[in-house]
Amino acid sequence: MVESAAPILEVVSITNRFAKFTAVNDVSFAVREGEFFTLVGPSGSGKTTLLRMLVGMEKPTTGELRLRGKVINDLPPNLRPTCMVFQSLALFPHMTVGKNVEFPLSIRGQSSGECRTRAWELLKLLHLDPHRYYDKNVSQCSGGERQRVALARALAYDPEILFFDEPLSAIDARLRKVLQKELKDLQRSTGKTFCYVTHSLEEAMVMSDRVAILRAGVIEQIGTPDEIYGAPRNAFVAEFMGEVNLLPITGLGGTAATWDTGRKVIPLTLPAPLAAGTARKLLIRPESLRFLRAGESAGNSVPVRILNEFSLGSRIQYHVEVASDCTLTVQRLREERTAATEAVLGWELADSQILET
Ligand code: ATP
Closest Cα to atom 30, ligand 1: which residue? Predict the structure, then answer.
């Protein structure tokens, strides 16, 4: 994907209201030609409603959808040069793998020889040996194999954009990882535009060129995985990324602030100035926190009690108590393991970020 690539799909101030409820609220973004674009958000954030509008299964209440600059709001799904891969895959269970893949080709009037040749190519592309799979019934295929058949069939439509609605959510974790990589490779090798929906930010970050994070029908942030990881726009995005520490802070002017744990008010130094009285969240990743040795200093330090530890393979995760009902998560390399129960925890100012709540 070229960063300057022209938008293939433009979403302009799209809103969808069901009676009094607004599921998607004034959303705008553009998907670039040849990119892997992912919409991600928690349950109920409006991902499916947005995707249904993009593929034409739902009409926007207001706003415009443009494909290569042409408004397509009123174009029915079957007349759009796009294709959707559903979570349920929607394969024909009584047909063979070959006939499933050939379906889009045969309805376009291609000869049976042409259909077979293309189906064989697509099965090979999806790592399904055609000698073994072409005549196999889809009902005898495993979940992962069926997933590949559905992808081969979607590609047989030769769509300009492939839309995916959580296609991997019903698949076990190990196979999901394999298929995530295959999907990404497939997108690269075909050069097609993929627009993907998932509730898993991890999945989005692994596969996508760019990610849009939705909350309550609104896009909170759009960016590359690196941009989102490195500079989450607010506490919601940071929290959605996984286990992070978000400290409620109030500015005292300059870089001085207080952290109110509920039981204790702790003075802190911030990485940037914050106006007096302004409430924010301070983001500190678990791996940025460390136990200070005697005489060692850090940008901020706070005494803690170590409550428990978990092995994460090469790393150890600790839960530490700062005050009652206030814990932080710390991750250290195994070789830095501590057996202490009381410690002083520290972090450098540059390893913390002030975020809007
Ligand atoms: P999930 O991950 O659980 O599928 P989602 O992010 O895809 O969630 P949507 O299915 O788009 O969310 O739903 C967004 C909101 O719109 C939800 O609160 C849902 O209850 C509401 N909603 C969706 N469809 C309708 C409908 N036909 N009528 C009324 N409300 C609806």
Answer: 18
Q: Could you report the per-residue pLDDT of 100-122, keeping only the tens digit for each?
A: 999 888 887 778 888 888 899 88
Q: Separation of 49 CA from ligand 1 center, angstroms?
A: 6
What domains appear along the chain, each with residue ranges and CATH number? Answer: 7-233 (3.40.50.300), 243-355 (no CATH)
Question: pLDDT, tens digit, for every residue of 3-39?
Answer: 567 899 999 999 999 888 999 999 999 999 999 999 9
Residues near ligand 1 (Cβ within 6 A): 18, 21, 23, 41, 43-49, 199
Task: Please tell me the distance from the alpha carbon of residue 288 to that of residue 230, in angstroms, as a whole number.
Answer: 13
Query: CA 342 to CA 347: how far, in whole Å?
Result: 17
Q: Which residue has the tokens 């079957």?
A: 78
Question: What pairs with residue 165 in β-bridges?
Answer: 197
- Scored b (16 or more CB within 10 A) or e, 235-249 reads bbbbebbeebbbbbb
Q: What is the pTM of this model?
A: 0.85
Whole-number Å distance, alpha carbon 37 to ligand 1 midpoint, is 21
